[in-house]
Structures are given as C-alpha cells and as structure tokens.
C-alpha cells in the first residue's frame, strides 16, 4: 500500500512492537507528529520538557522493560539536545533508537535554519547512524536500526531523516519482526575453556568480578550456579548491581573507587579473577598496572574491543556471558574454597561513619526506603554522593530495577529515566534518588511527571553543596571549596507545589518515614527534600590512580 514517509515510520515502529515513544516536536518534525496524531491510539507519545529528558526517559524505559527505547526530536537544537542521553546509553550499552528530522534534502549543506549534521555529531556515541534522504530507504533503515541496537553489545542508533522524505509517498509492505540478532553470538573455543579449567584447579583464592554484561545477557541464574560450583565470592560494578542477592554471603559488595573494603581486598589478594561482562573502567581498575596484581585474569566480554584495552589479561573469551557460563558449567566440578571465604570475613563490607546530631544519615534514608517498598520497586539515581550510597545500601534483587548512569556519570539523568521507567512499568513503584546538585539540572521534567500523572517519589539528598566534588576538595584540595557551595535557597516544597506536585521537607528519620508513607498514597509525583549534613562522606574512597593501600576509611 502507498503511505507517506511519516506513516511508514509509524508502521515500522508498530512492526517492532513499539507502543511508547518520548520526544519533543519542531518544524522539521511536523509531518512525523501529524502522523503520530493519527496513530495516537496505537503509539503513546510522552511529551517531555526538554529533549535531554526525552532521551533519558527512553533510556530508563529500555533498561526497566528490556524493550528498545525510542525518542523523537526535530532538527538542529532538538537533535543536539539528545547528545548527552545518547552518550549515556552508549557508555552503558542501552538499546535505543533516536529518530530525528532534518531540513529538506535540497537545503542540506547550505546552513539552513536549524540545520545540523547530527549524524556527524553522534558518530562517536552511537553504534551506528543513518542519514535517510530517499524514501525507498526509510523502512529498512528503521528495521536495521532496531536490529543493530540489540545485537551483540547493545547501544543507541540514530536515524536522521530529511523533512521531504517524511512527506513523500512510497509503497509500504509489512515485514514480520525477526529475531533481533543479525548474526549469531561468537562461538567459544573449547581449548580456552579447558585452559581456564586448569587455572581453576590451581587456584586457591578465586574471585568473580562482573558488570552490566551479565545483566544484559540475562545470565543471573548461570552466574549463581557458577559461584556455587566455583565456591568463590563475587563483586560487581555499578552496572552489575542487583544481579546478585544483597544478602548472599558470597556478595562482597561494590568494587572500585567507592567500593567496599571487602571487595577491594578480595581482588587485591586473589590468585584468579573472572571478569565477566565488564570493562575495567578507571573507577574500578584505578591503577590498571596494579589491579589484581597477584592474579591470573579471565576476561569474558561480547565486545572484542574491550579485551586488553585497560588491563592486560591472561585468558580472553569473546562471547556472550550466558553462553560462556553454560559452556564452563558443563565441565566444572565442585570446588572448595571455604578457607579463602573465611579469610575474607575479617574485612568490613560497610564503613560506619559517626552521624552528627540532628541530622539524618543517607544510609538510614536508603534502608528505610527499602523497608517501606516491595522487591519489585524500581530505583533510579542521578550522579553524585547519593548514587554511591544507593549502590552501597540498596537491597534490590534485579539489575533492571536499579537504573543509574555508570559509564558517563550523567548528572540530571535520574528524573527523565524515572519517567521512562514509570511509563514502562505502571504497576510498579518508582523511586528517584537525587542530590540537590543533580536535581537542579533537569528538575523541569517535573511537569512531565505531573501532566502524565506518574507517581514517582523523588528523594533529594540536600546538603547545600555539590557533595562529591566538595568531598574531594576537603580531602585533596586543602578545603578550597571552589564553586561547590552554590548558595541556593531552593524551597522544594513550594517549587513542587508550583509544578502541581506534592513536596515535603524532613530533618529526621522519623519525619522521613512519615513523609514517605504519605507519598505512597499520592497519585502523582512527590518530592521529599532531606536535609543532610554537608560533612557526610562516601566511604571508603580510593583516589584516582590509587590502590587498596591508598584507601580512605574515615
């Protein structure tokens, strides 16, 4: 049948199972939004306050549902406003498809109003991007975008479409959605499995360190069986949080700069380290020449470019994590490393910091939140001290229920991501943890939460400073608080009211619990501003380039 380009976009989105998109209209995208009007009963569009918020919403929707997030934007500034969101998704391997509209094909390259080469801008932060200036290429470009976003190491793909293409007519034929993989996962060399099994036989102190790749490959069951069979403890990155049960005795906690003493000591003393679906980032490896210096390292990752990129390893396996774990479990006998596990018990998983009088501890806020919500609750963070506190103390059991910007560290990520998570999971409770610094970056998305009646509870850790940088200035820069005490006088209760939301301000744990229980009864968004001391610290901490010997615990 004959359809115009905008209608073809809608039909192909339907082919791919898309029923929710996020975005913001504009001149170059008018044809697309006109078609969206006709398809509004099939594709629900959530209008955000800013395109960055839309990109984070598509990200949060994807992470929490397992579907591909979709975001629309117009040309020029509309498209460039997606950049931070695309980079966030790229660094955290989140499947997204961004559809932008550009000026007409005959105006390309002439500095037309709101013309930007968004494919050039986003080349380093997308898995692939398409420039579509011929109507006959449109449908297949969108189909390919969804496949590329989901195959191998997942990530965002952008399609930039000239405005004339969105109006031209062409024949459209329905294509049944095929499995997303363009090609099979890499095969595993059995000789590598055998070599790793020999290393296991020689090992007395094995440790498993895993990241987002385990969650992405849905290998939680296989990982738990591997840990049981190997009889080894495990630590994880921010992106791996939630894969391992919080109360599991083999759970060493977070690794790296703000990881637990227990996890960092285990890696430092290990003689064999399994690095599964992780990339040895500088926040984890710290000093790559000293990382796991006593250990043979087995690195398993689906992305070959990560092998030997940051840390030199001994055994490499380019494979899907689930495939690798299944392969090694076929041959792995039950091991016994009880002495090693007993030895590690001397190290603390948490550092208790004395609390000042008349203040509320971040740890208490997070633990109370867990106590007052169920195990299906989705937790979203921004970036800063609160992000690390959440990673340390949240008791959640599913990786898809903990959304955070790990690779890029995007302040302002949280509210948009929470909106996407709530839109994709209307039956679940969504909690948004943020700091006063991060929250000021994208709090404008409160209007999106209000207009869509999304009952997101935002918990603001308000210490009146840019906490993480303030902490580093305290420890390493002689308390030179350069531009980290902004002097803001934000009244969150009144500001929430101005948006049409509900707001609370609390100073004690009991006040917080009372406010939170009231928030649970609200049908719309709620903010709870918690006044915490600016002296609160994220501990332990290891400076950039440091080692376990440089760990600060007080």
From TrEMBL:
CDD domains: TPP_AHAS, TPP_PYR_POX_like. It catalyses: 2 pyruvate + H(+) = (2S)-2-acetolactate + CO2. Its EC number is 2.2.1.6. GO terms for cellular component: acetolactate synthase complex. Residues 4-117 form the Thiamine pyrophosphate enzyme N-terminal TPP-binding domain. Residues 382-529 form the Thiamine pyrophosphate enzyme TPP-binding domain. InterPro entries: Acetolactate_synth_lsu (IPR012846), AHAS_TPP (IPR039368), DHS-like_NAD/FAD-binding_dom (IPR029035), THDP-binding (IPR029061), Thiamin_PyroP_enz_cen_dom (IPR012000), Thiamin_PyroP_enz_TPP-bd_dom (IPR012001), TPP-bd_CS (IPR000399), TPP_enz (IPR045229). SUPFAM superfamilies: DHS-like NAD/FAD-binding domain (SSF52467), Thiamin diphosphate-binding fold (THDP-binding) (SSF52518). It is an enzyme of class 2 (transferase). Belongs to the TPP enzyme family. This is Acetolactate synthase.
């Amino acid at each position: 049948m004959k359809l115009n380009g905008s209608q073809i976009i809608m039909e192909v989105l339907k082919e791919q199972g898309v029923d929710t998109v996020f975005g913001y209209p504009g001149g170059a995208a008018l044809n697309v939004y006109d078609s969206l009007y006709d398809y509004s009963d099939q594709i629900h569009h959530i209008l955000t306050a800013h395109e960055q918020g839309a990109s984070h919403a598509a990200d949060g929707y994807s992470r929490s549902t397992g579907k591909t997030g979709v975001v629309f934007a117009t040309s020029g500034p509309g498209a460039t406003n997606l950049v931070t969101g695309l980079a966030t998704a790229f660094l955290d391997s989140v499947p997204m498809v961004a559809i932008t509209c550009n000026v007409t094909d005959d105006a390309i390259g002439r500095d037309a109003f709101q013309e930007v080469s968004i494919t050039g801008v986003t080349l380093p932060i997308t898995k692939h991007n398409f420039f579509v200036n011929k109507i006959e290429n449109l449908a297949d470009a969108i189909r390919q975008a969804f496949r590329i976003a989901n195959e191998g190491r997942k990530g965002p793909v952008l399609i930039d479409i000239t405005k004339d293409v969105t109006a031209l007519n062409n024949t459209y034929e329905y294509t049944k959605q095929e499995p997303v993989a363009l090609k099979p996962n890499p095969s595993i060399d059995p000789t590598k499995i055998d070599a790793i099994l020999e290393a296991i036989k020689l090992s007395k102190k094995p440790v498993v360190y895993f990241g987002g790749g385990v969650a992405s490959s849905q290998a939680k069951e296989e990982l738990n069986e591997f840990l049981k069979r190997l009889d080894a403890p495990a630590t994880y990155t921010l992106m791996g949080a939630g894969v391992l049960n919080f109360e599991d005795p083999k759970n060493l906690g977070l690794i790296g700069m703000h990881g637990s003493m227990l996890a960092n000591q285990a890696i430092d003393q290990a003689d064999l380290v399994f690095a599964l679906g992780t990339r040895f980032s500088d926040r984890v490896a710290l000093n790559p020449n000293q990382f796991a210096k006593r250990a043979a390292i087995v690195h398993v990752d689906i992305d070959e470019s990560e092998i030997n990129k940051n840390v030199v390893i001994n055994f490499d396996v380019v494979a899907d994590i689930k495939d690798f774990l299944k392969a090694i479990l076929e041959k792995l006998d039950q091991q016994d490393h009880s002495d090693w596990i007993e030895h590690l018990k001397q190290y603390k998983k948490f550092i208790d910091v004395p609390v000042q009088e008349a203040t509320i501890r971040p740890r208490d806020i997070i633990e109370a939140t867990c106590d007052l919500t169920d195990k299906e609750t989705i937790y979203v963070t921004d970036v800063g001290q609160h992000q690390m506190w959440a990673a340390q103390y949240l008791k959640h059991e599913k990786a898809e229920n903990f959304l955070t910007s790990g690779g890029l560290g995007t302040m302002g990520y949280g509210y948009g991501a929470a909106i996407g998570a709530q839109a994709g999971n209307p039956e679940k409770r969504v909690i948004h943890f943020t700091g006063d610094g991060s929250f000021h970056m994208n709090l404008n998305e409160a209007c999106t939460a209000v207009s869509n009646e999304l009952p997101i509870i935002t918990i603001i850790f308000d210490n009146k400073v840019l906490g993480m940088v303030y902490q580093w200035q305290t420890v390493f820069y002689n308390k030179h608080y350069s531009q980290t005490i902004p002097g803001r006088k934000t009244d969150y209760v009144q500001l929430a009211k101005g948006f049409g939301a509900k707001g609370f301000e609390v100073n004690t744990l009991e006040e917080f619990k009372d406010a939170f229980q009231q928030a649970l009864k609200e049908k719309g968004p709620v903010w709870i501003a918690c006044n915490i001391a600016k002296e609160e610290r994220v501990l332990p901490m290891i400076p950039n380039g440091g080692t376990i010997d440089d760990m600060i615990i007080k």
